[in-house]
Amino acid sequence: MTEEFAGKVAVITGAGRGMGAEISSRLAQAGASVFAVDLEPASESAPGIVPVPCDVSDPRAVRAAAASVLADAGQIDFLVNGAGLVSVTRPVETISDDDWARLMGVNVNGALHWMREALPGMKARRSGKIVNLSSRAGRTLANFAGAHYSASKAALLGLTRQVALEAAPDNVHVNAIAPGLVETPMLSGSVDERKREAARAATPLRRIGTTSDIAELVLFLLSPKSDYITGATVDINGGDLIL
Ligand SMILES: NC(=O)c1ccc[n+]([C@@H]2O[C@H](COP(=O)([O-])OP(=O)(O)OC[C@H]3O[C@@H](n4cnc5c(N)ncnc54)[C@H](O)[C@@H]3O)[C@@H](O)[C@H]2O)c1
């Protein structure tokens, strides 16, 4: 339990596995009440974590899920938009309208839907922190995904900056992080071992990121230690962007 998170209410999307699961469990251990949103929330519930089944790409489902969180907890102090889909690398001319819409629907619209629900209460209370999980793909390009992934993650950065400016007068902080490769089911499901090893060897710090690396940064951005940071994109990639 830590003072900065005790009693706080956090909504984490994409909390069923990977980065979202790690962030949820760290926050719960630190004393926050965590609402763990996912298409497939973890079946075993841990202390302090309430699973919330919800498709973030569906605005009505998000409205209903947010209403249930507010009915249960009264407010939302923290929102982490981590739900995401990746794509396989392929030429842009082969990306169908459906594929494009599916990725945008989760990676961009999902964050928009949850911010729309969380912001009014945060602004009214003049307190709130939002962290959007973008990607290095949104800063430069994706090594292992298509243009729809890069475009969705770049759009999320633009959304983050604009909402940060709007929310700043009400003391609501909105930031994004841009991870390089991180060991999660998303990575192992989309990139084979040989390519992962080549990527590791080419990373200046000579390792792939861990969910722990990511959770440390996100908890910093949710804590009072980051009270003068908003509208930022924080790179976390083992030095990839030096190159
Ligand atoms: N793993 C990486 O190398 C990497 C790098 C940079 C950025 N990211 C981004 O970080 C975030 C977390 O990635 P991860 O590696 O932990 O992914 P992951 O695939 O391991 O976990 C993502 C979670 O999002 C959930 N999800 C997907 N669609 C959803 C929907 N419509 N509604 C609700 N939940 C949904 C999935 O069920 C899953 O539990 C993603 O946005 C991803 O794009 C990942």
Automatic annotation (TrEMBL):
Keyword rRNA-binding included in the entry's annotation: no
Membrane-spanning ranges: none
Signal peptide: none
Family annotation (Pfam families): adh_short_C2
Swiss-Prot/TrEMBL keywords: Oxidoreductase
InterPro entries to which the protein is assigned, alphabetical: NAD(P)-bd_dom_sf, SDR_fam
Coiled-coil annotated residue ranges, if any: none
Family: Belongs to the short-chain dehydrogenases/reductases (SDR) family.
PANTHER family xrefs: 3-OXOACYL-[ACYL-CARRIER-PROTEIN] REDUCTASE (PTHR42760:SF133), SHORT-CHAIN DEHYDROGENASES/REDUCTASES FAMILY MEMBER (PTHR42760)
Protein's recorded name: SDR family NAD(P)-dependent oxidoreductase
